[in-house]
Structure formats: C-alpha cells, structure tokens
Amino acid sequence: SLYVSEYFSQSAQKLSFYSWYGNAKLFHFHVPEDTVLLRWLLQASRGKGPECTSMEITVHFRHGAPPVINPLGTRFPANATVRPSYNISITLSSAVQNTTFVNVTSPAAGDWFIAAHLPEAAGRIEVKGFSTPCPYMFQADMFVLRLTDMPVLEPGVPTPHTVVSPAKPLHVKVFVPKHAAGMWFRLSRCITSEQRACAVRVLLGSITLPQSFQRSLTCTGSTNCSLALDSPPWEKWLQIMVESLGTANASVSVEMLASFTVCRPGSTSSFLNFISLNQSQAGARPGAAGSSAPAAGGAPRNASGQRSSCLQSQPVVREDLDVVSVRYRLLNGPSVPVNSLSPSLLLLNLNTGMDSGGSLVVNLLLNKTSVSLANATVAACVSAASPVLSLNATQNCSTAFSQGYPLSVSTSSAEAMLIVLYPQTDDWFLSLQLLCPKGQGDCTSAEAKVTVFAYLTPCFNDCGPYGQCSLLRRHGYLYAGCSCKAGWGGWSCTDDTKAQTVGTQNLATLLLTLSNLMFLPAIAVAVHRFYLVEASVYTYTMFFSTFYHACDQPGVAVMCIMDYDALQYCDFLGSVVSIWVTILCMARLKKILKYVLFILGTLLIAMSLQLDRRGVWNMMGPCLFALLIMVTAWVHHGAKRRHCYPSSWKRWVFYLLPGITLAFIAISVYAFMETNENYYYTHSIWHVLVACSVAFLLPPRDKHKKPWAWSQKLTCRYQICQNDREELYAVT
Which long-range contacts (CB under 8 A, 24 or more apart) does 504-510 make? Predict the structure, then answer.
C-alpha cells in the first residue's frame, strides 16, 4: 500500500480569558478521505515578562461542527441537546513553551474543529495601556497519513485479503448506498501463513469526537464471525480495519463479505407536488386544472404502496434566508401523516459546510383530532448521516455509528421541541412513527397528523432580552454565539443564577445617569466666573454622558436617543475635551492663545478617538501636554511677579489641593477598581469626583471682570457691554 503524508497549518492566535464563546479561539481543518492516521501538533507559549504566570489552557476537539463547551458551568436552554466535548489541558508553568501531540486512528473524513481558551475571566475592567497583559499564544497544526490505493470491498462479493503483519493492519472500504436499512459483515477463512488458527480484530467505522461509535469485532480460530448493523450512514464510504493479534512474523489471510438490506421508500409524488406548487404561486393558466388532476388522483393509488414500504419520504425544500439561517418547507403542507406501519421521513440538508455554526430547531405539534386511538404516541428521532427506521417505545434513537435525539408527542402532551446546538455537517433526518398501546384497537389503520417546523438559526431565540447574538468568523467560516448581559449567563442567556433584578437594573441606570448632574455645580461656577466656553463643554459632556449610559445599560432600563456608537463617541470626546479645557483654563493664558489651543486640541482629540477610542493615551496624552503648558505658564507668571504662582495660600489649601486630590482618586477608581460587577457604582463615583474636581480647579475670574449684575445691565437699555477701554486709559 502507498501512504501519503500531508501537513496543514494555521496561524497562531492569542488566547483570551473565557467569559463567552467569542473568547474561545477556533481552528478549522478538513481531513481528506482515506485518512488512516491523524496527528495534532498543539503548541502553546507565553510571554517572558514578570506579568506572565503559570496558566492552564483548555483545548476542545470535535468532528463536524465547533465544540459545544461550558467552562463556566452554566445552564443550557430547555430542550437543548448537550453532549460534553472531548478536551485536554495544557499547562504552562516554568516552561515558556509547551508542545503536545494528539493522535486519532482512523479519523472520520470532513471538518474537524479545535477550540482553545484560558480559564474564566476575572471580570476586571482594564484600561487599555495602563497595564501590559501577558500574551498567551496557541497554534494547531495537523498531520495526516492517507492511503492512496485503499482496496474497495464490493457489496455481496466475498473478497480475500491478507494482513501482512500486526504492525501493518489492513484497511478496506465499502460504499453504503442510499436507503440502506442494514448492513451485514462477515469474516471467514481466517488462517495464518503458518497454517494455524488466527486471531484478528476488526474495527468498522471511523473515530469521531467527542463520541465515537466505532464497532469492534474479535475473531479467533477458523470459525466465521459476523456483525449486523442497523441504519449505516447513507452514501458514505465506510472504513474497515483488520488487525492481526498473532505473532510478529506471521501474515493472516481472511475473506470478507459485506451485504446491505435496502429499504424501498414509498412514492411521494414530489415532482408533481413541486409543479402544482409553482402553478399555485404563478396563478391560473390554461391547462392548469387538467395538469393537477393526475396528482390528485394519484394520491389514493399511492397510499397502499406507501404502507407496504419501509418508509414514507416527505419532500422538503431548503430555503436559505441569511448567513447560518435556513428554513425547511414541506411541499405537501406543514402536516405530516404518520402511521404505525412505517416511519415518515424528512430530510434536513445541513451538508453545505456553513450550517454547523448555528442551532437546528425542530418543533412538533400534534393535531389531537387526527388521532383516533386514545393514549397513542407519535415517536420521533432526529439523527445525522442515516435515519432511524425502527422506532419503538424505548426511544433509543441509535443508528449504526451515531446516537440520535428522541422526541415524542401525544394527546396529553401535544407539542415537543428539540434544539441541536452546532449541528454537525451532514444530512439530518427526522423520523416519525405512530406507537399504539396494546389492546387499544386496530393500530394498523390509525393515522396521526403532526405539524413540523424545522429551521436553522444563528442563535436560539436571538439570545433573549438579556443577550446579543454575535456572528463570529474564523477565516471563511462563520459561526454565532451569545454575549449575555445584566448577570445572565448560559449558551442562550437563559441562566438567571446571577441575574440582576429589575430593581438593580433601574438603580444602575439611575446612578450612572443622574451622577452626571454633578456637573451642574461646575457649570454654575464656570458661568459665574465668565468661562462660557468651558461651561459649554461641561454641558455637552453632561448631556452625552447621561444619555450614553442610559443607552449602554444591559437590562430593560434602556433609552437611546440616537445611535449607540454616536453616543459613545460623543461621551468619550466630551470627557477628554473637558479635561483639556480645564487644565488650559488653569494656565491663565492669553485669550487668543487659549482659544486657539482649545480648537486645535479638540480637533486632535477627535482624530485620536476615531483611531482608538479606548486607548489610554487618548486621555493621558492631552492631559500631560496640557499640564506641561500649565506648569510652563505658572513658572512664567511666577518669574515675572518674583513670587510663587498662584500666590494665595488659600487658593492652594481650599481649591487646588482638594481638586487635585479628587482628580487622583477619580483616576485611581477608573483605572484600578472597576469590574463588571461594581461598574455601575464605581463609574458613578468617577462621574462625581471628576465633576467636583473641575469645580475646585477652575481659577477665579479676571479682576477687571465684574460679577453678573443682570438688574444693572437691564436698566441701561442703550448700553449692553461695558467699555473696558476707559479703564485702561484712565489716569490715576
């Protein structure tokens, strides 16, 4: 046999601490057909700085779809199918790099996914640039060993083969036809090259993670050994591996036979139904009434044929709506006739390669008036690759190499729902059959009507009122995840274990919005001291900060007066510009120079915020530059007057020192104390401290400016402004 090795690699990704599925880094690989060995090379590394500590990286594997993980231990939505993912842990302790190998023998062909993440996030809100987080990198490479000339086992034909040695197992494959109800495998005439009784082990099927349904058969001696399988995967190659359990230098000769039992589906008249559907949509035309007559007359004639067949296939149309959004429409109407003789089968096509990143939802609704027998139950199974053709009361829903998902409806419980999270890329089948209790009359003539609603959605229920459905991308592959808010958690944001109450949400909104009213004293002080431009900036900041936080709330207490992104930009711009104009006002520059710096600084701040809205230097840069200007101006004033500036000790004790203290406390709260849990009151404290510090730091008005005296100005109707030039040239 000729083996070919292939290597696939993807670029490394920086890992994140886990809080929702978007924090997990996804790797997508495609395993080719006839692969006999798959080896993953997992490389994890961390930085060398002092901030880097020992860390445990969790890596999840799954075939066919992204792995369904739950590192936080939250609840999944009701009626959702959850099967634990296969995962390993990689520890980065003293070593900077860790290399791990994972081997999979006889892997299933198709899509394979790897998801890696760090432990649960601490919930601390870090200001970008204040601290340097440790980079943890992860890279996954894939090696495959593929057999180029794998022998094909022809169904129904006994074929001799030879196992050369225990170190070189025999690999063959057989193609499973469509509508195969069962498979029978037989191994006979097993003898070694030393003419002794042989011992071999036969493995049927491929390994899939997290669950593998590979069948094993051990044959000893010259007797025949066989294995029967129900519902093998349709229209797929099935690998068979034979291993010798004998001595190392002895070959083994065997004869293998594979045969299939094919199920004859009932007639569905799907082509005629499709024509009639198009005619009903296009409207009446000449000959339309005559053309629909054969379809109507053909239904009674096909009824006996459908009951004598092993399944009744219902025609289903796949309708693509959007990315990871599909609706399935039955051509014969939403109601499916179900009897007890043979199951009714619906094909749900999810094999495009882009459907595994959402949630498959199947909803069944029983028409109670259609069931003639009391206590009758309609059993249903949703399975991938092959349908369940024999439904019984045990509701096992297992096929040859997979485990399906059971459903049931009855007169006492007429509705059932199933949610398959991240369904694997394959053909999915919905099987329905009527089950009658013993002694309840003639079950063969009974029939039930079940309305079927099936669709693929990015996020189930759109993540609910406390979540946001986000479309994620890894190269060209798209998948969806829910980002929860207001303390809600879970896959679809349905876990209310840590959820905030409505009262807490209202309190958070009131604190974050009403705390901005503390800018009113600063505005009043600025107006009183004739700093009208500064007062306008504070008013702008107070307004947009109030409505930005009213729109930014995660719960039900939300009000947005404009687009969220616009409100956020205006809030950030107003905050930085308020600090800029306050420090420049303290510098006591000439008016023309001060206003030029106001405008120029505002334009530069607007540009920097557009480039990086959350960068720490967007705030620290203007602050430091304004402080440099202020210190230079104060030194110039002090040197000119030959004493310290400001000269009054009362100004330092009662205004500057309290204002500087409040500003430093505000920066400390903003940079080091905010978390997701305490954000609503720590950020409110930030609002209050900043607004109060502005009121303390604003300098007194110019000496030649008189306080506002509206009564005096209104009595002098012919003169609105005071002429300062007379004072400048007055002789004393």
Answer: 505/553, 505/554, 505/555, 505/556, 505/557, 506/557, 507/680, 508/553, 508/555, 508/557, 508/680, 508/681, 509/549, 509/550, 509/553, 509/555, 509/557, 509/558
